[in-house]
Design a protein that fits this description.
Blueprint (H helix, E strand, L loop, with lengths): L1 H16 L6 H33 L5 H15 L4 H17 L4 H11 L5 H21 L7 H13 L3 H16 L5 H19 L6 H17 L7 H11 L6 H15 L1
Helix pairs in contact: 2-3, 2-4, 3-5, 4-5, 4-6, 4-8, 6-9, 8-10, 9-10, 9-11, 10-12, 11-12
Length: about 260
């Protein structure tokens, strides 16, 4: 639909320049557009199917939806890597936006993994996890290059709310619990959140970035603390942050709650 709107706008621009011209130029443009639109319509079929099924996912229909997605990725479009990547990208996004369903989206991911696509899926998941880490590193930096700034701005369109970032962090934890990402990715995430907080807190104790990153790290720890034993250094740094003078009280309590949870 977005592409169609852009085509219409391009049509209007061309027509303004060629109001009195009904020659070859416009006719060629129409023919080119027709071919491209056919390809777009063809791609939209599987995109609509995947999006529609993912939108319907719930604990009650988990098995049914999983089988439909598995069939699309491993049977109908098994030789189309774009379909697989599109599906996983959507799972990442929806898991972050509906973080209470994170365990179900991870189950869905595991459901579509078969011997023939296992390496592809692990590679895509790792790439998307690494991309998330890179963007979170950029969050508190002021000296980004032009390319870094453009990448971060695009990413921010997806993570406008702290709820999304918190959901994404929880999803990373669920991926680790289900052995879909390695521990080093998780360690890097935890360190990035702490580095972000410590970099900003010196100059602006009220910065919203501090709350965002504390929520992210607390969500991640609460998800993985039973499976991830090496948290002592992380918790020490988090406790020091919690002791910072002027930190919002609800954030102090959040850090205390996480410490209590892990210690128990």
């Amino acid at each position: 639909q977005d592409l169609e709107k852009q085509f219409l706008e391009i049509d209007n621009i061309i027509n303004r320049f060629h109001q009195n011209n009904k020659g070859v130029e416009i006719n060629n443009w129409r023919a080119s557009r027709s071919k491209l639109k056919k390809q777009t319509d063809k791609d939209s079929v599987w995109k609509d199917e995947i999006t529609s099924n993912l939108n319907k996912l719930s604990p009650q229909n988990m098995e049914v939806i999983s089988k439909k997605i598995e069939n699309l990725c491993n049977v109908e479009y098994k030789d189309n890597d774009i379909v697989l990547e599109y599906t996983i990208d959507n799972i990442f996004m929806k898991a972050a936006m509906q973080y209470v369903y994170c365990p179900y989206y991870v189950k869905l991911l595991k459901h579509i993994i078969v011997d023939t696509n296992q390496d592809k899926i692990y590679k895509i998941i790792t790439e998307k996890s690494n991309q998330y880490q890179i963007m979170m590193k950029y969050e508190c930096k002021n000296d980004l290059t032009k390319d870094q700034k453009e990448s971060y701005d695009e990413f921010c369109e997806k993570i406008k709310s702290k709820t999304f970032k918190a959901g994404y962090s929880q999803f990373m934890g669920e991926l680790y619990k289900n052995k879909l990402i390695k521990s080093d990715i998780l360690e890097d995430c935890l360190v990035i959140f702490l580095d972000n907080i410590e970099e900003v807190i010196v100059n602006d104790i009220k910065s919203p970035f501090i709350e965002d990153n504390i929520i992210c790290i607390c969500n991640l720890i609460s998800t993985i603390h039973k499976e991830f034993s090496d948290l002592e250094i992380i918790l020490d740094r988090l406790t020091n942050i919690g002791d910072t003078k002027g930190l919002i009280k609800r954030l102090k309590f959040k850090i205390m709650d996480i410490n209590d949870m892990v210690n128990k």
